[in-house]
């Protein structure tokens, strides 16, 4: 029984300018993460969630969402195991009556020790919450570090007329394998049999390589930090050859725009992908890889479409249920989920970060690793979990 | 593969005068522990039990109980996996015939190597056993350290006219969380809905805090070592208030004696609680938290009542089956078992001992930790398990 | 997360002249191991196997068997999870199209990056394969270290007229406990109730001890390295006595030859036992304990009989199915499998190698440990698994 380092120190010595990314096995602290849809938390209800290795209690009080560490200060038990909410604003620990205020985390009272010197002097950890586009975001970090939500979502996501629909599920891989699977231009090879192609005319090369100028790092002071990859500046490959023989072909319908199903992707801190014109022109896929613990992330998949009338909104909602959810988020992305989970064992002991053998188009992934190491606002550590 | 310390060394550096208690994750060596009821081991029968991380074989021979390490000296296999008992006094290992005498542990013979230099010169570990009040006690320690059983049980437990009945079950928490749950004056908050209150008139404050003079350390040279907590010298709280509003009330029937259901508790080395006048005046609950391994203890629950006639004994046995076992040992204490198991994860990595945030009434628990560190006769270590 | 040593360093310091054997927890590298029967791999088929902790892909191409590491160089995924074999000689990784040639391991192509500088310049690990006596052998080691198969099988196994039949199954113990169980003259105690004795007249002492001259180390430069134990030079014990009373007797039918069911055994690197005249004179049992990982081995059990005519071959095949497989390999050896699995926990943390208490006849096992430490061609390490 001793404190094992979270990341293999031998590996940390071997990586160069993206060491901070390898350290961030539990995610980057001091960022906003979407953790549930607003519709999942009714007034007065409680939810237990995980985020960057911490267990949190969410409660909606008078419409506003609050997040509190789900662990009693006294002897460390989860408050949620038997939630005693005697008043709207407080939760009382079932074991010895420590009572906390949701809005501030203040230890308001110990029911049987009302005069305790601790009352009013101690706080349980709370985290700021915001709701946007139907998602509940939690700022997992320290209060004095809070940044505007707009700095942690891809450009366009907060656009007023954007209607956002989605779903989430737990994936058994580290969150970084989610980011890299999504942003990886070469991985479209796994989607070659997707049923999604029956719902539109796809350009589907077996892979494509960025040419000079395709990749741009976005690092403006007041905006989100990310890497953009423009598929119109990629060199696509349509036929796969082995020993001079064509063994696999990618379907090609639309010669006009881009080289792929999408026209470009971008990946943003703290781990969110934007896929433009996907699954169909006019729609953008935004998806988050939210760190739950070392080996799991919450895959929050959303589609956004600009809608200005009720009819447009109703049409999008309908099409989402009948087309894009079953054939896109469920069908197409099932390949991605499976690929991330199968990749996980190689990176489990951290050696994967130095034993991998990247090829030329993986330069985009390296840009992302470096950018994340430069701009991540803090590394979540084992100490943060104590 | 290397020898992990049993307890986090960083934590050991941080605790002060009860370091030995934190070290005793596997229990205190050189003490007597009850491990089964006498009625569970018939003449000639074998039982496999665990104690402080060691696997033991118990056998009753001519009425007397013997305990032997259940691991062959030769190549470490459990003798119990295929017990070959060719004579009353011996057990022969099923693998290569090493034969041990229960009374002494002597390697009496190797069946196919009768002239081995090892025969008569090696011993398997055995431990002294005694029976008292219907329980089989094992002295888990070194023979030259054996102390009288009376030094390891609470005062009164061996009284001649005391009739003792009970049960045992395995609880998934470290033994110390058992001790601390039982001796904790504030934890009665969890029992507020117990069905036991329908069988007597309970005084049940939501908690109570010891006043000066309530707590006494008992450390006489020739007796058991423990901490007594006198509830008549406690300040009880009957109404729990949040923001000026009473949110929970404790029932109060009997203003005359004590402040709680019991009139006082005491906790004794090596981990046994005495609850006076409980579940009803005239009965005493004695309960042991016997270390099995780092994360489990055997919860040995007993009730003792002074009986001098057969009729009294029969009445007590009847009342035990119909009232105190179902509503006390099963019902009431089920809350305690659950609380210990839910607390375990916080202390699993030992940081709980320094990260906890105790309040004023927990001073009784601190007294116990210090007393245990002062008087525990030895720390069970990983080396003892090899 | 850090690199735990494979073997407890404290233990390595304590063992003397067979330290290399204790280090070889994952087996000896640079040796030939049988991994499947030839009949289990048809032309064009793929098999996934484990060997010394590595996952391998086997494929038969134009009759010849090839073995390749089942882990893509790119990002470490198992190729076998979705095998894309577009041509007879290659396998393409399902994730990004890295394409490997089975015969050489060469990275022949990356389907969507045909111009990658990596193509033709990188190799995935492959291992030489040979087939003999109906078994597929893999040389788990470095190509420049390859030795003739004849140096890694017991004498006689490759004899031209020897017909070999067998089976294999996974056993949950380290491979060394397999070797030591098989070569251990004293362990026949566990077979005393075998049904095999109904199929022949067995000499079955309860154990026997080698006399001077029984044990010979075979270490000729160009042959296999092993230890032979001649049972005709053993002192058998027929009656087991405790306190002067005979408690168990071994059946004795044939006073003429040897002292046991077999007339002698030998154990050879890299972990294969030869049992002469067993299960019946005229047949030899050859059995391998092939390391799969730290805690499991593949038990490859074979019987060999000299056959020169089709009738002899057919008779042997028939007798194998009706007698020797059910009563020998299944029945008799089931005791051995069980014993190895029950012994495993004692050696799991490596302390068993120094905590065991060997007796006189175990000198044969010590000879084997020393010989293996002298002649093992390499230790498989955790680094080899990365
Ligand atoms: S553990 Fe929460 S009040 Fe004691
Ligand atoms: S392991 Fe018990 S006699 Fe060999
Ligand atoms: S992981 Fe195999 S090609 Fe990428
Ligand atoms: Fe994808
Ligand atoms: Fe209790
Ligand atoms: Fe055997
Ligand atoms: Mg902790
Ligand atoms: Mg000791
Ligand atoms: Mg051991
Ligand atoms: Mg090596
Ligand atoms: Mg690896």
TrEMBL record, chains A, B, C:
Keyword tags: 2Fe-2S, Iron, Iron-sulfur, Metal-binding, Oxidoreductase
PROSITE patterns (alphabetical): RIESKE
Alphabetized Gene3D superfamilies for the sequence: 2.20.25.10, 2.20.25.680, Naphthalene 1,2-dioxygenase Alpha Subunit, Chain A, domain 1 (3.90.380.10)
Rieske domain boundaries: 32-138
MF annotations from Gene Ontology: 2 iron, 2 sulfur cluster binding; metal ion binding; oxidoreductase activity
Entry keyword Acetylation: no
Signal among keywords: no
Annotated InterPro entries: Cholesterol_7-desaturase, Homotrim_ring_OHase_catalytic, Rieske_2Fe-2S, Rieske_2Fe-2S_sf
PANTHER family: 3-KETOSTEROID-9-ALPHA-MONOOXYGENASE, OXYGENASE COMPONENT, IRON-SULFUR DOMAIN CONTAINING PROTEIN
Protein name: Rieske 2Fe-2S domain-containing protein
Lineage: Bacteria, Pseudomonadati, Pseudomonadota, Alphaproteobacteria, Sphingomonadales
């Amino acid at each position: 029984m001793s404190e094992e380092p979270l990341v293999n120190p031998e590996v940390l010595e071997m990586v160069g300018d993206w060491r901070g990314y390898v350290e961030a096995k539990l995610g980057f602290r001091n960022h906003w993460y979407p953790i549930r849809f607003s519709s999942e938390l009714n007034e007065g209800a409680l939810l237990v969630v995980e985020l960057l290795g911490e267990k949190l209690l969410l409660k909606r009080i008078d419409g506003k969402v609050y997040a509190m560490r789900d662990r009693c200060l006294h002897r460390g038990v989860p408050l949620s195991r038997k939630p005693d909410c005697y008043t709207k604003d407080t939760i009382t620990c079932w074991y010895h009556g420590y009572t906390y205020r949701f809005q501030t985390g203040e230890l308001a009272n110990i029911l049987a020790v009302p005069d305790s010197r601790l009352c009013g002097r101690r706080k349980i950890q709370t985290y700021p919450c915001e709701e946007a586009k139907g998602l509940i975001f939690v700022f997992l970090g320290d209060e004095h570090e809070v940044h505007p939500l707009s700095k942690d979502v891809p450009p366009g996501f907060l656009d007023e007329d954007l209607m956002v629909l989605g779903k989430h599920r737990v994936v058994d891989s580290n969150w970084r394998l989610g980011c890299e699977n999504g942003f990886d231009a070469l991985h479209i090879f796994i989607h070659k049999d997707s049923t999604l192609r029956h719902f539109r005319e796809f350009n589907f090369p077996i892979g494509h390589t960025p040419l000079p100028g395709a990749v741009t790092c976005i690092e403006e002071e007041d905006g989100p930090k990310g890497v953009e990859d423009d598929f119109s500046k990629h060199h696509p490959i349509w036929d796969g050859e082995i020993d001079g023989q064509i063994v696999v072909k990618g379907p090609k319908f639309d010669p006009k725009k881009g080289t792929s199903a999408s026209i470009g992707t971008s990946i943003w801190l703290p781990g969110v992908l934007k896929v433009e014109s996907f699954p169909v022109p006019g729609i953008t896929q935004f998806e988050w890889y939210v760190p739950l613990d070392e080996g799991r992330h919450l895959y929050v998949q959303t589609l956004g479409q600009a809608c200005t009338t009720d009819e447009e909104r109703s049409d999008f909602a309908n099409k989402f249920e009948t087309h894009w959810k079953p054939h896109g988020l469920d069908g197409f992305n099932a390949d991605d989920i499976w690929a991330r989970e199968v990749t996980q064992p190689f990176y489990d002991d951290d050696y994967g970060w130095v034993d991998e053998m990247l090829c030329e188009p993986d330069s985009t992934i390296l840009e992302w690793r470096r950018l994340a190491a430069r701009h991540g606002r803090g590394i979540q550590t084992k100490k943060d979990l104590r």
